[in-house]
Amino acid sequence: MQAENRAADAGTSQQRQYRFLGLDLVLQGSVLAPRAETELLASQAIAMLRETGDAAPLVIDMCCGSGNVGLAIAHAVNSATLLSADLTEDTVATAKANAALLGLSHRATICRGDLFGALEGQGAEGQATMIVCNPPYISTGRLEGESAHLLESEPREAFDGGPYGISIQQRLVREAPAFLKPGGLLLFEFGVGQERQAQSLLNRSRVFESLDFPTDEEGRSRVAVARLKDTAP
């Protein structure tokens, strides 16, 4: 299972092609090239969404980037409606381009804004069957040191997860419950070695039940899967 980045020029120096879960997609401007490990998040989400039995699920894709995760889900689950969001013009434009490329524009709405603030006016509160997120999860300190090379060709906002690398996860766990149905699912990617932090965030929320921490091909936990409890404690 690998995401195959391709250097082939798609017509301009600002547009590149790549492959994600068998889908041919594009990158425009300064948008993060999806990593192979993110296919684990998308695959888990597709499998679990199919198991919910929801006839018309709403899926929210936070920090959508090029749109790869949410669009892969919508492509695999024909009954799903997708609501995606990210912070920059480049990411929103790229996600919209990929939705059109896959013929999913009629089922995918792409919004720009700061995390769930982007969804204001969409009427999504309490409606989502699933929320997925591939957030920035590298600490600011590492980006100024050993991981500084990542910023040579890709945007800081795609990597910088704050002082401890979990700032966006903290907000995600805090804000997601308002948009999930009771029993709704939250799946998010995290960095190598962050499993304990992810588990702690979910436990401290008191509204999520941790279900699983799927591992990559090297046996490392990279995704958190949690369910919103039917009733608050």
From TrEMBL:
Family annotation (Gene3D superfamilies): Vaccinia Virus protein VP39
Substrates-to-products reaction catalysed: L-glutaminyl-[peptide chain release factor] + S-adenosyl-L-methionine = N(5)-methyl-L-glutaminyl-[peptide chain release factor] + S-adenosyl-L-homocysteine + H(+)
One of the GO biological process terms: methylation
Keywords attached to this entry: Methyltransferase, S-adenosyl-L-methionine, Transferase
Residue ranges the record marks as coiled coil: none
Enzyme Commission number(s): 2.1.1.297
Cross-referenced NCBIfam families: hemK_fam (TIGR00536)
The protein's enzyme class: transferase
Record organism: Rhizobium aquaticum
InterPro entries (UniProt xref): DNA_methylase_N6_adenine_CS, HemK-like, N5-glutamine_MTase, SAM-dependent_MTases_sf, Small_mtfrase_dom
Domain Methyltransferase small span(s) in chain numbering: 56-145
MF annotations from Gene Ontology: peptide chain release factor N(5)-glutamine methyltransferase activity
A Pfam family the protein falls into: MTS
Protein name: peptide chain release factor N(5)-glutamine methyltransferase
